[in-house]
């Protein structure tokens, strides 16, 4: 592989991120008995899974979406049994969103499918390539945290 010029790095990272995103979306299958969900619903589910007790407004901020659009998604996902809406223990005027058992099971199934695909892909790479990818992860996570919007 040829040496990359520093000014190419941002473009290369953007192209890589989009390519990985498309590849993972292509490999992702819906949980057993479930239809394929729109990306916006999947993103809401992932945020709630990572931050149980989050509010609609906090999800909207995290995803750079309008609160009314998130509210519509939450209503659909609640109706489908993936989200449990609970009054906040701190302030009963607010609602906290929590994953249901159905959501956790579905998320585990989707994660297992994606993990299997990535494991198989990594097994097809030379050992030194896997080691370089692994070594780059902390810096890539730091880049992601730096790029993330701040509330």
Give an overview of the whole structure.
Strands 1-2 form a two-stranded antiparallel ribbon. Helix 2 packs across helix 4 and helix 3 (56-63) packs across helix 4 (67-79). A hairpin with a 7-residue loop joins strand 1 and strand 2 (95-99). The chain has 151 residues and is mainly α. Helices cover 64% and strands 7% of the residues. The model has no long low-confidence stretch (mean pLDDT 92). It is globular and about 55 Å long.
| Total beta-strand segments | 2
Q: Portion of residues in helices?
A: 55-70%
Low-confidence stretches: none
- Order of SSEs: HHHHEEHH
Per the principal axes of the C-alpha atoms, what is the gross shape?
globular
Largest sheet: 2 strands, antiparallel
Kindly name the structural category.
mainly alpha
Using only C-alpha atoms, the radius of gyration works out to 18 Å
- Portion of residues in beta strands equals 5-15%
Q: What does the average pLDDT come to?
A: 92
The N- to C-terminal Cα distance equals 40 Å
What's the number of helices?
A: 6
Order of strands, main sheet, comes to: 1-2
């Amino acid at each position: 592989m040829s040496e990359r010029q520093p000014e190419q790095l941002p473009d290369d990272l953007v192209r890589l991120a989009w390519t990985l995103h498309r590849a993972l979306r292509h490999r992702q299958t819906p949980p057993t008995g479930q239809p394929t969900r729109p990306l916006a619903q999947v993103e809401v589910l992932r945020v709630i899974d990572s931050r149980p007790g989050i509010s609609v407004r906090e999800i909207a901020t995290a995803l750079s979406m309008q609160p009314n659009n998130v509210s519509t998604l939450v209503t659909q996902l609640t109706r489908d049994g993936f989200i449990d809406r609970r009054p906040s223990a701190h302030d009963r005027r607010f609602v906290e969103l929590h994953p249901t058992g159905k959501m956790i099971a579905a998320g585990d199934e989707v994660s297992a499918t994606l993990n299997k695909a990535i494991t198989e892909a990594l097994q097809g790479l030379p050992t030194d390539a896997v080691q370089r990818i692994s070594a780059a992860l902390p810096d890539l996570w730091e880049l992601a945290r730096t790029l993330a919007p701040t509330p």
